[in-house]
Amino acid sequence: MALMGKDTNAESSVMISVVIPVYNEEETLRPLVARLTETLEAIEEDYEVIFVDDGSRDSSPALLAEFHGANPKIKYVTLSRNFGHQVAISCGIDYASGAAVIAMDGDLQDPPEVLPGMISKWREGFEVVYAVRRRRKENIAKRAAYTAFYRLLSAVSYLDIPLDSGDFSLMDARVVEELKAMPERNRFVRGLRTWVGFKQTGYEYERSSRFAGESKYNFARLMRLAFDGLVSYSFVPLRMVSNFGLAVSFFAFLYMAYLIFARVLGNVVIQGWLSTVAIVLFLGGIQLLSLGIIGEYIGRIFDEVKQRPHYVVRAVNGLPQSPPGHRGHEV
Ligand code: UDP
Ligand code: MG
Q: What pLDDT shows up at residue 269?
């Protein structure tokens, strides 16, 4: 089983760190590690792979232990439970000591063969190289939903989050340092990565379909992610609420003026109760919706002020006990 590892080379830094969150990926891990290490060995032997076991319940942890035993460059962090994709990536980044840190998924949707291209972009001087999907290989409904979301996000966000780029990216140590220093709990990694700035560039690739198993994002989790993106990087929903309030008040005022006017002229206007009920229900709906939108922001404020650690580490293998140079979530 996993040990609280005391590793001799724990403190040393490497050239390339690859961070991979893992949640029940037993079918994919073996081919992933084979393809990844082959690719890396060919271009840069000074690397580490940091898997973050995000509370897997299948044989993924045993596989990770096996990989670590066979190749000490493969290291892993075991979280105390499932904390979610974004938090798992953040955890891996916290532990990464590479001059460049690459975040990729563990389901082979992000092909390891793309890494050499991204690394050479970094060597050219770019501090962030984010992978851009040329074409998705998911079903039409999911693709449409993603496309709609990214367009909506870029329309309302105060950041220019690149279209069709996910978390698959390479970040220079400078960028990683800034990411680690960010205290926020809502870790929409691609947003944070855009926020820090530096020289960024896209790198096109063909996104594969999942190698095995099912996406861990169900509809509800995707909605949460989408809301995190929208609420954390946009004030447009809040502004919509006030604009709508203004518009409704304006029309109500016009209508009142009309009623008074009609009354004075002697045309007694008695409207049916139906219209009254419709208006009351409509406004009730709008008010609840507005409260909900404000609630989304307040909920996140509450989450932030609690200042809980982002994640709890159960064990580390091949890595220092607490991530080097990070603040805020020692365990
Ligand atoms: N993942 C994770 N924790 C979770 C959900 C997913 O660490 O709670 C990992 C998962 O094992 C995979 C990556 O995050 O390596 C992306 O997940 P998934 O493929 O389900 O997302 P999608 O590609 O559908 O966006
Ligand atoms: Mg996937």
A: 64
Given the CA of residue 83, which atom of ligand 1 is nearest to it?
8
- Burial class from Cβ neighbours inside 10 Å (0-12, 13-18, 19+) for residue 326 reads middle
| C-alpha span between 88 and 90 (Å, rounded) | 5
CATH number of the domain at 11-218+308-330, please?
3.90.550.10
Ligand nearest, relative to CA of residue 58: 1
- Ligand 1 atom at shortest distance from the alpha carbon of 217: 20
For 143-174, the pLDDT digits (tens) are 787 788 877 877 777 777 777 778 899 999 99
Find the 5 Cα to ligand 1 centroid distance in Å: 26
Q: Which amino acid is at 114?
A: V
For the chain, give the mean pLDDT: 83
The pLDDT value given to residue 67:
93
Judge contact between 48 and 97, C-beta under 8 A.
yes
